[in-house]
Design a protein that fits this description.
Chain lengths: 267, 311
Amino acid sequence: MGESPPASRQIRRIVLNQSKRAHVGHIGSALSIADIIAALYMNVLRIPDPDDPDRDRFVLSKGHAALAVYAALYLKGWLTEETLNTYCADASLLGAHPEHALRGVDFSTGSLGHGLSMGAGAALAARLQRSSRRAFVLVSDAECNEGSLWEAVMFAAHHRLSNLIAIIDLNGQQALGYTDHVLSLTPMGKRWRAFDWDVHEVDGHDVEVMTETIGGLDTTSGPPHVLIAHTVFGKGVSYMEGQIKWHYWPMSDEEYRQALKDIGATP
Amino acid sequence: MRGAFTKALVGLAEQDPRILLLTGDLGYMALEPFSDRFPGRFFNVGVAEQNMMGLATGLAEAGFIPFVYSIATFASLRAYEFTRNGPVLHRLPVRIVGVGGGFEYGHNGPTHYGLEDVGVMRVQPGITVIAPADHEQTRAAFLATWDLPGPVYYRLGKDDKTTVPGLRGRFELTRVQILREGVDLLMVAMGSAATEVASAAVTLADQGISCAVAVVACLNPAPVDDLGAILARFPLVLAVEAHYVVGGVGSLISEVVAERGLGCRVVRCGVRSTPDGISGSQAYLHRRHGLSSNTLVATALQELQVQRTAR
């Protein structure tokens, strides 16, 4: 993988800035999906305007990484810097989990295992309305612990919802440990394939590869699609990568300076 | 009631293409009028209530009015968090149809009883909660609420024959329906318990006791003004429901009495303990839990005696 494209780096920088300003955690999760979010918002999602009824729908089912989405909304010009700076402040719509009342957020999430069924409903709605729009759902690997997710997996496969694209942020970690130690789902791809999904294993930090892979999907017929995006938790910040504590932990001043240096940004 | 619902739904679906029907693999010999007429708008999603609610949320966001159908306890409880975080938080027009509130699935045992569905739904300010007393009121309630902007929970019975005397198919949001006037005490019924209550009032009248009867079919938004006005006229009210005594119409009445500082004493007639494994017919279970006409008469007489002694 070459140098991070500008959008990914900007998302990481915003994630670090805002997490430090608000003194909150969930940093590692947001960094894990920074490149997936960059690929989606910069290259993939067809959203002429966040209020366009025929826009692609996006569900951040792993809602605790919402800051990466706020960063993308800001980069797209749908969120002002002033509003972005209210992240986790009193009276803000920008909580640690996304809220649909915020322009640009299609569905509120935060309770894991909910997003894929809403995304399947969005995909079914598009089919019934004879629209070519698509529904994208970003789930975490640990979220696949939830039985309700598999209800949606079965439904989407049975109804051949080819316009539904799930992306799994396979970083191998969850709140209290490593996924293989807590409740193993390895090999993930085999499980989704067994449910008749079209499975693609990708580098979840390679924006180009993810963009090309999604561009090559048949979203008009056939099975639903899943990208198993192999990622590194805390990607880009040396001391966060693969470390459980950065699911919750906020940064100290020194850690913040180091994090910015790691991603090639200046304070 | 569910026959009245399906018939009305088919009629509306003819006019409004936004209407869809989803079922969690239930509704044999009930939903066919819809599924036969609109096969492309009917989805048996399988035995998966959570996904059904998530799907309905995604469909409603795109402009549809999805009705989701299951037995009351599964419709309300299994998918509860998906209801809260879905149509309630998103303020979307999903309609949840729970069939068989109370003891309607008597012989099927406690897993099939709907004894807290109204309670758990009523705590959410953002959902309209409707529990009609008979099939005529079901039709009226349905026609008055099917196109509300937010979510609706309907607690429907399976009985499409019985009508509650004096109700005459009336329904209005945030209103109470008075079935019978009286002066000695008031009985307020929710859902199919209204039939037992109406019958008890006739028996009491034969014994010289004048019992007023009211039905609360709209639990949320609650008919607080109507309840406040009528409760102020009586020293004693019996709240009657095939539901736990916490959360349903007895709780609602107690809230109104307390908040308005009324002097009316509230006796909650409902289910007070966890089912002990004993099942039986609906009529048997109503008797067992003090909800049959005869047991309600006995309770009314006893509570009137308590009232007189206290004076």
